[in-house]
Every structure is written in structure tokens, then in C-alpha cells.
Design brief:
0% strand; mainly alpha
Length: 400
């Protein structure tokens, strides 16, 4: 009986470690089953009311976001479309409620982070093995194709979107860089192996926005290391020079990376931004069209002008800020910022090792949502609704 209780007490950390990885690599179909399982375990938990009332202030940004979503769903001209969009957003409240009501300890948080790191490492290794095998089988055919093809194919061999895989790797980097505080059970050699593996994978995936976020993460960690005398100035200079050299080499020898950088200012994924901004302006920067109705406006606009880009770009704005503003007005924009910044809203300390993970999570979504409508699809919703509350609790428990 004692063993069963112990297993039960560690189920939620393990499930929460697996869930973001599952949704990125194995799809969204079984996510409702994960959530139902989490709810059942949650209902069997003791002290959930006490834990909830202790942590209820952390839930406020997510609650505001959902309440604004409900309002603009109910007042939408096409409520049936709006309800479909709203269904996905329920995870944004359910998962944080479960997380903030659970009895967390340092040991349980370490288990979650260790499980996450180990699975992510295994996925990266498996990815490289699969890439090598793919090249071995199809090398004659690949050599005839564009030099960017093999890099482009890499994430698709694992059925993953390169941007979301990159977000997972950046989060892994943030955990590793915070390890002096977290003291995860990881040896120095294995730390370096994991760190190098994650960053090589990031460079091969060559997703531009995540690479920018990762650069900012390194800058933050260097600032913290310098201020707290964790890193010597000499090490900082050498590391910076190495990073610059690596970027130059990658730019010259990574065809996909250089192609993406060169096409940054001519990227047609953002061709709907001016139309969205004009519509927001027409609503006096205050009102919204209703959840999901923004997409209908863009669809009608493209059909009217008979733009061929509709065939390969659809109606995705590739900007969550514009999407929320278009659908839910100024309230939708503010509530989105509340969720993105939730990991750092309640920080008592400034930028230091104990807050690095929180800043990293806010950084991922604050920058990432400029080029992706990540919170309009379930995988993005799951990512933020798991890692944002966890980072809040890591700061609360480990900084004591």
C-alpha cells in the first residue's frame, strides 16, 4: 500500500514532464486522455484545497485570459466557430489549476525536470540516428536535390515542427543553466553532453526565432554569472568569441540556416499583418471581432483579391499578438501579455540564478509569439500551460 501511494504521488510530475514532449512529437489526438488522467489523479490528491488557496494568486493571469476568451466567444457573431476555438483554450485553465493544487516538493520538481531532460535527450539521439539512416538509404537521391533538403527533412522524420522542437530544447537549456540552483542529479560530463546536444540540434533545425531566443538566454545567463561571480570575465570573452565563430561557420556551411536568414525580410508568411493591423485600427484599437472571426475576415479578404498565396499560407497570421488583438481587442492583447509574463509577474528577486528559468519561459513566448500563433493550436497551449506554472513553482520552492 505504501508503494502504491508513493507511485501515485509521483504520477503527476511524470505525466507533466511527458505531456509537452508528447504533444510536439506524437500529436494532439491523445491529449484529452492525458488531461482526463491528470484530473482523475488530481481528484485523488490530498490537501488540494489548501494548496490551491496557497497558490491561487499564481492562477490569476490564466483566469483573466480564459474569462476574456469566454466573453468574446459568447458575444461573437458566429458562436459556433468561436466555441471550436474556445475548446482548445480550456487546457490553459485546467492544467494550471491541477499544477497549483498539487503538493509539490523539491524532490518532485526535480523528478519532473529530470524526466523531461532524459526523454528530450533520447529524442535528439534517436533523431540523429534516424537522420543518418535516412541519408544512408537515400544518399544518391538526396545528393541530387537542394543542399537544404536534408536539414529540412530532419524534424519531419520525427513528425515534429522545427519551431516547437526548438522551444523544447531552449527550455532544456534553461534547466541545464539553472542547475547550480536546482541540483538535478546530473554529472558534469553528462551536463556538457546534454548542453552540446541540445544546441547542435537547435542549429540543425535552424528555426530563426528560437535561435534568437536561445541567444538571449545565453546573454541572460552570462549576465547572471558575471554579476554573481559564477563565471569569470575571461570565460565570458572566450565563450562569446566561440559563439561568434560558430555562427559564422554555421552561416557558411549550413545551407538551410543561411537560406532562412537571407529570406527573413522577404518572408511571405507575414503578408497578412498589414490587413490585420488595418482591421484593428478600424476597431479603434479597443474592440475585437469575436473569437475566430478574425480568420473569417482574412479569408474573405484573400478570396476578394484572389491572392494565390492563400494556397500555401492559409489564414494564419503567424503572430499571436495580432491574432488576439484582432479577435478580442485590447482586452485580448492585455490578457495574452498576462499569461506570457506570468512566470515573472510574481518574482520577488531580480534577475539571478533562482529566476533564470522563469525569465527563460517568458522569453520563449514573448519573442516566439511574434512569428507564431502558437496559442491558437493545442501544442502551443499545452506548452505554456505546463512550463509557465512549473517555472513559477520552481522559483517559489527553490528560492526559499
Amino acid at each position: 500500500m505504501t508503494k502504491l501511494k508513493k507511485i501515485h504521488s509521483y504520477l503527476i510530475p511524470i505525466i507533466l514532464a511527458i505531456l509537452p514532449l508528447w504533444v510536439v512529437f506524437l500529436g494532439e489526438k491523445v491529449v484529452p486522455i492525458f488531461i482526463i488522467f491528470l484530473i482523475i489523479i488530481y481528484l485523488l490528491e490530498k490537501k488540494k484545497k489548501e494548496n490551491f488557496w496557497t497558490n491561487n494568486k499564481f492562477l490569476l493571469p490564466f483566469l483573466i485570459y480564459i474569462l476574456i476568451y469566454i466573453y468574446y466567444t459568447l458575444t461573437s457573431e458566429n458562436i459556433f466557430i468561436s466555441i471550436k476555438f474556445f475548446e482548445r483554450q480550456l487546457s490553459m485553465l485546467i492544467i494550471p489549476i491541477i499544477i497549483f493544487s498539487y503538493s509539490w516538493t523539491k524532490q518532485k520538481l526535480k523528478l519532473l525536470l529530470e524526466t523531461y531532460l532524459v526523454i528530450l535527450i533520447l529524442i535528439c539521439i534517436y533523431g540523429f540516428i534516424k537522420l543518418g539512416y535516412f541519408y544512408f538509404i537515400w544518399s544518391d537521391w538526396i545528393n541530387v536535390l537542394s543542399p537544404t533538403y536534408l536539414q529540412f527533412k530532419f524534424p519531419h522524420l520525427l513528425h515534429a515542427h522545427p519551431t516547437y522542437w526548438s522551444y523544447l530544447l531552449i527550455y532544456g537549456n534553461a534547466i541545464l543553466l539553472s542547475n547550480k540552483l536546482l541540483k538535478i542529479n546530473i554529472k558534469n560530463n553528462f551536463w556538457w553532453f546534454s548542453f552540446i546536444l541540445f544546441n547542435i540540434t537547435l542549429l540543425i533545425l535552424s528555426a530563426r526565432t528560437p535561435l534568437l531566443i536561445n541567444t538571449f538566454l545565453f546573454i541572460l545567463s552570462i549576465i547572471i554569472g558575471f554579476r554573481k561571480n559564477i563565471i569569470k570575465p575571461k570565460i565570458i570573452i572566450i565563450t562569446t568569441l566561440l559563439l561568434v565563430i560558430i555562427l559564422i561557420i554555421i552561416f557558411n556551411y549550413s545551407p538551410l540556416f543561411s537560406a532562412k536568414i537571407n529570406s527573413t525580410f522577404s518572408d511571405e508568411r507575414f503578408f497578412l499583418w498589414p490587413k490585420a493591423f488595418n482591421q484593428i485600427k478600424a476597431n479603434y484599437f479597443i474592440f475585437g471581432e469575436g473569437v475566430g472571426n478574425g480568420s473569417e475576415i482574412l479569408k474573405n479578404y484573400l478570396n476578394t483579391i484572389d491572392d494565390p498565396r492563400i494556397n500555401y499560407n492559409g489564414f494564419d497570421l503567424h503572430n499571436q499578438y495580432l491574432r488576439n488583438y484582432l479577435d478580442m481587442g485590447i482586452l485580448g492583447f492585455i490578457s495574452l501579455l498576462c499569461v506570457i509574463l506570468s512566470p515573472i509577474l510574481f518574482l520577488k528577486k531580480k534577475l539571478e540564478l533562482s529566476t533564470l528559468l522563469s525569465y527563460s519561459v517568458s522569453l520563449i513566448f514573448f519573442i516566439g509569439l511574434f512569428s507564431e500563433s502558437a496559442l491558437s493550436i493545442l501544442k502551443g497551449i499545452i506548452l505554456i500551460s505546463v512550463i509557465a506554472p512549473i517555472s513559477i513553482l520552481v522559483n517559489k520552492i527553490f528560492s526559499v
